[in-house]
Amino acid sequence: MKKTLIALAAVAATGAAFAQSSVTLYGVADIGIQDTNAPGSKLQLNSSSTMNNGTSRWGIRGTEDLGGGLKAGFNFEAGLSLDNGAAGTFSGNYFGRNAFMTLSGGFGELSLGRRLNPAFNTAAAWELTGAANYSAVVSQFGGVLVGIRTSDMIMYTSPNMNGFVAQFGHRLKGDNGTKASNDLSLRYGQGPLVVAFNYNNNAGGTGNNKHLGASYDFGGFKVAGAWIDPAGTAKGFSIGGSTTVGTVTLTADFVRDTDAKDTDFVLEAKYPLSKRTFAYAAYLRDGKKKDGAFKAATARKDVGGFGLGIRHNF
């Protein structure tokens, strides 16, 4: 009897240990019909293109409680084509979207590996479409986000201090080719107001990228704007608004490169089907003065893209 009780206690202890760890499967299924007026373009079905709201993907993330307030975690994320079931690789790698480990606690979070960088997180904090694939900000000033993801990155994220979060990413010289790179994000979000600033030389080239953006939610109407100054000759701003009519959310966002005298804009409508699924329609105009989402300068004309799709988050 005594041995039986000891065995049961051991099993219970093992179960408690397993309860301190968790692994989650998650992802996005996004597919839609889309077309542009670029030469040679045809109406087609896509799940990971510019006119999708998001890129279809799946991932695994997990955490383990190490005790003393410390947790270890990991995240692996891969692209997935709903067109034909093929793997959608990024940078030629299967888990090219995310592949990193974390150590977190009262001090914040330290992560090592490839993931969305502080520059992207800064823009996503205020951008009106939720950093959709058809974002006019990305079309006009994608360079300021330095590729959205960074490999071999050491990143620290501070605890949330009354709405303020600081995030710093560093890539060592040996991983960056010619020199080390840095990426700093300062974000504040409390109530209806969001303000975010980024400074980076994440590409490792000459010069640096800077942008400062903000949004304010008045309840039935939300406005957002930003000052954007990428490395090189490009420079400009964005301004837009979003409102809800019934259950449909309507968004318009205009982004101007004042040096190139080029304007990109997006019009978006989203209709919620449930808490995790929504239908969307979007129109993105890429100005002809410089390359953007549809490389309009190459086509030597303003290029417009239209997308009609559905997105499910799981």
Automatic annotation (TrEMBL):
<protein>
    <recommendedName>
        <fullName>Porin domain-containing protein</fullName>
    </recommendedName>
</protein>
<dbReference type="InterPro" id="IPR033900">
    <property type="entry name" value="Gram_neg_porin_domain"/>
</dbReference>
<keyword id="KW-0626">Porin</keyword>
<feature type="signal peptide">
    <location>
        <begin position="1"/>
        <end position="19"/>
    </location>
</feature>
<keyword id="KW-0998">Cell outer membrane</keyword>
<keyword id="KW-0813">Transport</keyword>
<keyword id="KW-0812">Transmembrane</keyword>
<keyword id="KW-0472">Membrane</keyword>
<dbReference type="GO" id="GO:0009279">
    <property type="term" value="C:cell outer membrane"/>
</dbReference>
<dbReference type="InterPro" id="IPR050298">
    <property type="entry name" value="Gram-neg_bact_OMP"/>
</dbReference>
<comment type="subunit">
    <text>Homotrimer.</text>
</comment>
<dbReference type="GO" id="GO:0015288">
    <property type="term" value="F:porin activity"/>
</dbReference>
<dbReference type="Pfam" id="PF13609">
    <property type="entry name" value="Porin_4"/>
</dbReference>
<dbReference type="GO" id="GO:0046930">
    <property type="term" value="C:pore complex"/>
</dbReference>
<keyword id="KW-0406">Ion transport</keyword>
<feature type="domain" description="Porin">
    <location>
        <begin position="7"/>
        <end position="287"/>
    </location>
</feature>
<dbReference type="InterPro" id="IPR023614">
    <property type="entry name" value="Porin_dom_sf"/>
</dbReference>
<dbReference type="GO" id="GO:0006811">
    <property type="term" value="P:monoatomic ion transport"/>
</dbReference>
<keyword id="KW-1134">Transmembrane beta strand</keyword>
<keyword id="KW-0732">Signal</keyword>
